[in-house]
Write a structure and sequence with these properties.
Helix content is 43%, strand content 13%. The chain has 19 helices and 11 strands. Strand 1, helix 3 and strand 2 form a beta-alpha-beta unit. The N terminus is likely disordered.
Length: 435
């Protein structure tokens, strides 16, 4: 996702203030500059190096961390690297002597290699803000073996369907209340000559995501997850198979030759108002609003089929990642103090306002009406994104298996039962149910 700079208005506003806030690491007044102090009146601020995989967020994080610098004897050096190259860069940085102090780390199974390798500092019981976080989200920062905490989750991502209100109004349709209504909405929009569902299946990583948007309630959300963990059910369960069949049933409402359509293509279809709906994550909101500020957006949970395992629609969710401390950093105390601030409402609210991300910190509020709508839906009927939350702790991962399986489903080389068997056979190579 590309995030465009948003500095001009903010810069003009700051220029009009009698006392301006300093940019990261710069003096706040001419007198401070002469004295060599930072905004907190500190002559020798300690530099904390932070690494991230999100170059698109650099400007927002510089603004966020400037607020911390103003109150602390710290200069934050925020560096971001290309997402596809980050894991290797981070691995090298954590084992060398010139690495970061604080890192943006992955969650759940993707975090475990860093924990096992001794690369991160244990912060169990040291960050007050973690006490009130959703257990599903906090699990993304914990060691699988003993539950110790190695980071502060920075965003909760929810999964739902975005829709274009204008297109719905022009087509004479409303947000569906049942699965049959949902199908009729798709049929009417398709009949008007427009693509109903902006889905791109060329990028396999998005397919387990799309599956959960359309299938979590069908297979039972958290109840199914718990049953698989305890060994009472497997991924070949009839309801899980039918959840995969949902995707095949909806394929006709997706772009033609959907496996040749990329994730980015699908984003463009929706943001350019060439498709009525986009099944995706809450992280899409800021992108859509930047690409098309006139887009009249709403969101809804996919209604359930008759006989679904869950009687109510759900919003699956997961932790996007964590802020963690490099175990080799010589600045452990300053790094921990920063993480403690990252667990506060002040930091969480800045994440909401500057990044339009759902901070997992308690007490934040949402000024954007679409954000509020999405969050209220999630709070009403939450569910875990099962394959990511629980089945990325071994190889082959559940998300990789489902990603390839859905592509085969769309191409016609596997049916829903075959995809379910592929997932079950793959995770069974390393996953053992709790006795």
């Amino acid at each position: 996702m590309k995030v465009r700079p948003r500095h001009l208005i903010a810069a003009l506003a700051l220029a009009m203030l009698p006392i301006t806030a300093c940019a990261p690491g710069s003096p706040s007044t001419a007198a401070d500059k002469a004295a060599g102090t930072n905004a907190a009146g500190c002559a020798s601020p300690e530099t904390l190096k932070i690494w991230s995989w999100r170059p698109e967020d650099v400007d927002a994080y510089k603004k966020i961390f400037a607020a911390y610098e103003e109150k602390n004897c710290v200069k934050v050096d925020f560096q971001a690297f290309k997402n596809t190259e980050y894991n290797q860069i981070l691995s090298t940085g954590l084992t060398g002597s010139n690495g970061p102090d604080v890192v943006q780390a992955r969650a759940y199974g993707a975090l475990q290699p860093l924990i096992v390798g001794g690369n991160l500092t244990d912060v169990t019981g040291k960050v007050d803000g973690l006490k009130t976080m959703d257990p599903t989200i906090l699990a993304g920062a914990q060691a699988k073996t003993d539950g110790k905490v190695y980071g502060v989750p920075f965003a909760t991502q929810t999964m739902q369907v975005f829709y274009n209100k204008k297109i719905f109004k022009d087509a004479g349709v409303e947000v569906p209340k049942s699965w049959d209504d949902f199908v009729k909405v798709n049929e009417k929009i398709k009949g008007s000559g427009m693509t109903p569902l902006a889905v791109g299946a060329k990028d396999a990583w998005m397919m387990p995501f799309i599956h959960d948007v359309f299938g979590s309630a069908e297979y039972g959300g958290k109840d199914f997850r718990d049953a698989v963990q305890s060994g009472k059910k497997t991924f070949t369960d009839a309801k899980y198979v039918s959840s995969i069949q949902n995707l095949k049933d909806l394929q006709g409402f997706m772009p033609k030759d959907v496996v040749g359509v990329s994730y980015t293509d699908a984003q463009v279809l929706f943001s350019n108002e060439q498709a009525a709906m986009f099944p995706g994550g809450s992280f899409e909101l800021a992108f859509f609003q930047k690409q098309n500020p006139d887009l009249d957006l709403g969101a809804f949970q996919v209604p359930v089929r008759d006989g679904s395992a869950s009687p109510k629609p759900v919003s699956p969710a997961y932790a996007d990642g964590n802020w963690a401390i490099n175990a080799k950093s010589p600045k452990q105390e300053a790094s921990l103090k920063l993480l403690q601030w990252m667990g506060t409402k002040e930091f969480g609210q800045k994440v909401v306002d500057e990044l339009k991300q759902f901070s997992p910190v308690a007490g934040v509020s949402f000024n954007d009406p679409v954000m509020k709508e999405i969050w209220d839906l999630y709070q009403k009927n939450p569910a875990p994104y099962t394959l990511l939350v629980d089945f990325r702790y071994g190889q082959p991962s559940g998300t990789d298996l489902m990603g390839a399986g859905v592509q085969e489903l769309f191409l016609g080389s596997k049916d829903a039962a075959g995809v379910a068997a592929k997932v079950q056979d793959g995770v069974a190579q390393w996953f053992k149910p709790k006795s």
